[in-house]
Amino acid sequence: MFRYYCLNPISQVGLVNFTENYTKTESVEEAEGVLVRSASMHEMDLPEKLLAIARAGAGVNNIPLDKCAEKGIVVFNTPGANANGVKELVIAGMLLAARDVVGGIEWVKNNSEDENVAKTAEKEKKNFAGTELMGKKLGIIGLGAIGVKVANAVRHLGMEVYGYDPYVSVDAAWNLSRDVKHVLNVEEIYRDCDYITIHVPLLDSTREMINKDAIAQMKDGVVILNFARDLLANEQDVLAGIESGKIRKYVSDFPNSTTAGKPGCIVIPHLGASTEESEDNCAVMAVKEMMDYLENGNIKNSVNYPACDMGVCTQAGRVAIFHKNVANMITKFTACFGDNGINISDMTNKSKGNVAYTMLDVESPATTQIVEKLSAIDGVFRVRVVK
Predict the structure, then answer these.
(1) How far is it, in rounded angstroms, from Cα 157 to Cα 132?
(2) Is the pTM value of this prediction over 0.70?
(3) What is the mean pLDDT of residues 360-366?
(4) Model confidence at 169, in pLDDT bands (50, 70, 90)?
(5) Are 46 and 67 in contact (CB under 8 A)?
(6) Strands 317-324, 355-362: parallel, antiparallel or unpaired by DSSP?
(7) Percent helix, percent strand, percent coil in the chain, to nearest 5
(8) Hey, what's the torsion of the CAs at 156, 161, 167, 171, to 10 degrees?
(9) Which residues pair with 39 in a beta bridge?
(10) Is residue 45 packed enough to be buried (19+ CB in 10 Å), middle (13-18) or exposed (0-12)?
(11) d(CA 226, CA 219)
(12) How do residues 90-138 score in pLDDT, each as one tens digit?
């Protein structure tokens, strides 16, 4: 029996996938699995029993990834599950930036008592007219699940689409419209595009990538859309770009005191993935990832451990070992089993950065003595008997 704990409300559409082998607990100390959305876990004491954390969403900046890795706790996210919701809001953001729809609606609301409002509107509407998207150039930085959906959708709006992603996956490349122009350096996006939308993770290499130097390379009157992370842009530099006229509009899904209410900024209250469908999709994916790991030791969509899949174990036992990615570890693991006369029928070893994950299917159940020997090996974080 596995126990799980929800740090945030999680959609029932996801939770109903748990079988009778799972029970919800009201104490995180008792849980082998934790489901989370936005709650911060950085100050939490991680229980010894905890094996997995599944984030029902893409961003994991609320989870202490390195700390979890050192404890042998696998952290999952749900890439692509909320992509359509974000895609639709990006398109809405482009339209709001192109035409002052919000300003026009506010004008009508403020003049609602005017009996001649229709006639007056004909004189005033030029103040909210704006431009069309057709024929404009959109640059997409990051061709992951969201970037690809945006690229394919806006082609139907008659836009020219340029995509930049030096690490584009095979799946993304297959799903990308052949009409999208794949550029080799981000400077081409800055130089040529009327609209620029960012869809990359927040890393040291991407933090404040939209700064005064990048903005200086952009076309006058550029529209910048940020539905990924606010820290991808130096927003003081963005405000300076708006004031100078270099930037026409900055559309952000991350309200903060820097941009909220500022001229030229359209700030949305973090609605990107906040649709019923997105929350349901994320919950379903998070639950299924957690179940496959807890039951079989398989890892898919982890952000701190490598992907690993050995299917369902048909042997007497399966052991998972979390360890440093250093030489000679496999030799030490196999020796522990060999010295105790236990044959290994199948094995896989995968690494991700400084950490590695090894799974072994064995023809006899792993004894407490073997687990203790494996745990005592220098560089081993955790040993888990899956079966």
Answers:
(1) 10
(2) yes
(3) 96
(4) confident
(5) yes
(6) antiparallel
(7) 35, 20, 45
(8) 20
(9) none
(10) exposed
(11) 17
(12) 999 999 999 999 999 999 999 999 999 999 999 999 999 999 999 999 9
Which one, of 197, 258, 255, 250, lies nearest residue 228 by Cα? Answer: 197
SS3 8: coil
Distances in Å between the Cα of 190 and the Cα atoms of 204, 280, 343 are 20, 36, 58
Task: With H, G, I as helix, E, B as strand and everything else as coil, classify residue 284.
Answer: helix
Name residue, tokens 């690993």.
Answer: 308
Q: Return the structure tokens found at 125.
A: 């509407």
Provide the pairing of β-strand 137-141 with 195-198.
parallel
Exposed/middle/buried for residue 52 (C-beta within 10 Å: 0-12, 13-18, 19+): buried
CA dihedral 135, 139, 145, 151 (to 10 degrees): 10
Cβ–Cβ < 8 Å for 107, 128:
yes
Neighbours of 337 (CB within 10 A): 22
In sequence order, the 6+-apart residues with CB closer than 8 A to the CB of 252 are 225, 226, 227, 230, 233, 235, 259, 265, 266, 267, 268
> Is 290 buried (19+), middle (13-18) or exposed (0-12) by CB count in 10 A?
buried
